[in-house]
Amino acid sequence: MDHFQLFRRINADPRGYAIRRKQEGAKVIGHFCSYTPQELITAAGALPYRILGSGSDSVNADGYLQAYCCSLVRGGLEDALAGRLDFLEGAVFPHTCDSIQRLSDIWRMNAGFAFHADIIMPVKLNTESAADYMRAVLARFKADLEKGLQVTITETMLADAIRTCNRVRQSLSRLYAIRRQNPLAIGGGDLHAVFKAALVMDRAELADALEPLIADLAPAVRPPFTGKRLVLSGGLCSMPDIYQVVEASGARVVWDDFCTGARYFEGPVDENCAPLEGLAQKYLQRVVCPAKHAGIYSRGQYLLDKARENRADGVIFLYLKFCDPHAFDYPYMKAMLDKEGIPSLMFEIEDQLSSQGQLRTRCEAFMEML
Ligand code: SF4
Ligand code: SF4
Predict the structure, then answer these.
(1) In ligand 2, which atom is closest to the CA atom of 326?
(2) From the CA of 70, how far away is ligand 2's center (Å)?
(3) N or C, fewer C-beta in 10 Å, the chain?
(4) Better-scored residue on pLDDT, 353 or 67
(5) Exposed/middle/buried for 305, CB within 10 Å: 0-12, 13-18, 19+?
(6) Is the CB of 315 under 6 A from ligand 2?
(7) The pLDDT of residue 228
(8) What is the pTM of this model?
């Protein structure tokens, strides 16, 4: 049985999936960022839906945004203004980069949804006061959800949702481990489809669907992989072509540092403490994004550790055009890799529109270098 089929189908039409869930009675809450506490939305009985933008031409959004906004923000707003997100109750905006913070205001005033929540998390995550602040912020978001969706989120409901989301994290992490052991076990395109689907699926359905997929993949004996091993790094990956290009050049991706990849699942929530406390600790200690701060070199050190652990021959930075937080981190992260003798390539992408031909040429040249 091809367990990937379900994920490919949902990835091909995430909107269709969410609309079906809504017709079945679910409330769908949109969000743009992996700092959104999906556990609280799940506990409220709603479906957390990551908005990535459909890649349609920007007709309406340009009137509200500066020319230098990333395509994630532009695409999401365009979809909302064009009515393509009408199945949402509303959206949540964890305050991360400047673009998302401004998008929240524009969205609230113009997108016309009933529900809107800002989650103003601490920027500096590694201080004592950040822990108190994070707990208060999460409690406030819980109250916003309860009021907006007319539900009461009990401790038991939140603990159940945490367990479900932890099952998902554990399975996604297992998929990465299988691939790391033998990169031929899972095609990059298939893993990408699983992740994109995971960002919009009902978490209990997702947890149930991942377990048989892993059970099927794990025991197979495969020839050893002898090609080049790559790590990808960046904000998000909305460009599945990258896997095709990498694999056509004889290499395989063995790890990533994307908010639509490893950053989304690394680190479970502690199930042995009070649910809100566990959540606060999780979002303080998770793999950090460049819009947050947990030490000057923490992102570079993480990338270096992952490159070493996964025996990577090189790193490709996928830089989403106009994403300032990632652009600011790139020079020092590249310098840290250079110092350790790990070659890297930087490729600028603009949603799904980047040229596959140009990517292929640069990727092939990079492989020759490795
Ligand atoms: S890179 Fe980090 S801060 Fe930016 S959208 Fe992704 S999860 Fe959010
Ligand atoms: S972190 Fe980068 S990719 Fe994410 S919303 Fe901000 S500018 Fe866009």
Answers:
(1) 2
(2) 6
(3) N
(4) 67
(5) exposed
(6) no
(7) 94
(8) 0.94
